[in-house]
User: Fold this.
Amino acid sequence: MQFDPHHLAALSAVLRRGSFEAAAGELSVTPSAISLRIKVPEHRVGTVPTRRGPHCSVTRSVRRAARAGLSLQPRPGTEIRKYQDPEIPMFAKEALNYTAIPLPDRADLSDDEMCSAAAAFHEQMRRRHTVRDYTDRPVPREVIETCLRTAGTAPSGANHQPWHFVAISNPAMKQRVRDEAEEEERRFYAGGAGDEWIKALEPIGTDADKPHLTTAPWLIVVFAQRWGTFEDGARFKNYYVPESVNIATGFLLAALHHAGLCTLTHTPNPMKFLNEALGRPASEKPTMIIAVGHPAEDATIPSVAKLKKPLEQISTFLE
Ligand SMILES: Cc1cc2nc3c(=O)[nH]c(=O)nc-3n(C[C@H](O)[C@H](O)[C@H](O)COP(=O)(O)O)c2cc1C
Assistant:
């Protein structure tokens, strides 16, 4: 029996978490009573030919079929294998083809579950505060690595991921960053910033002393990359660099907070000294130093930090 479009609905359910690639050929989908043949590739039944040879992804309809309990059976000569992330490095030119793969993970929450999840996350995030006084209690490198991985999942212009994070626990290097940052800060507070800026900082209570840069166990310096390089050394331009890097930085701050750590987003002005100190190329722009660690016993926050604009002020709904 040829594939019948009416079965698309029935086919809407298995292999939710997996996807398959099949060599060009025919697949048989075999529920108990009927046998459906799906020719591969064929757009009509939802297959997507890739641009890499004769392979094609078996997409939504077939995955859903599997979820509905239909069994997928390859015709003789049809190779089916579990889809795996390509092993080709990200910036090998050959990897940059359009290939659709099924959405790998879905949340599938009810409306009530979504409301609870949103509220729980808000409850957690509203407890985050910038902390300027740290203990020297160490933080395992593994925690920092995992949080950086989270940052690396951020969306970015054309998926170029134009960021680089330098994580520093080396005391001598932290001291160097502190010395150079404080030098910039002294210039900043001595008039470089201008009266209006200094006035705006008054309620925050900051000055040119930055002891957190040496007491916090980790400093993470965020760099924005104006361009990237393919494996063969050819350059490519990055797009929406500040937007992408700032989203990744937000992910990082949320991940660190979620891991029970405190942070300070520190922005000495200017920050160019960080390129040389940390050996990063001139094509990268340092955007922030994030101090990471545990709060000191007597850590305080400025009271104004609790004043967050209400929803009505930060949003408009058009329904
Ligand atoms: C881009 C940016 C730069 C910042 N630079 C500094 C800084 O150089 N020094 C500092 O003490 N705090 C800095 N902060 C922290 C802010 O002062 C802080 O986020 C704000 O007062 C709100 O407090 P909260 O983070 O506790 O909610 C910076 C924050 C951002 C987002």
The radius of gyration is 26 Å. The domain at 125-314 is CATH 3.40.109.10 (NADH Oxidase). Residues 129-130, 132, 204, 206, 264-267, 301, 305 surround flavin mononucleotide (CB under 6 Å). The longest strand covers residues 284-293.
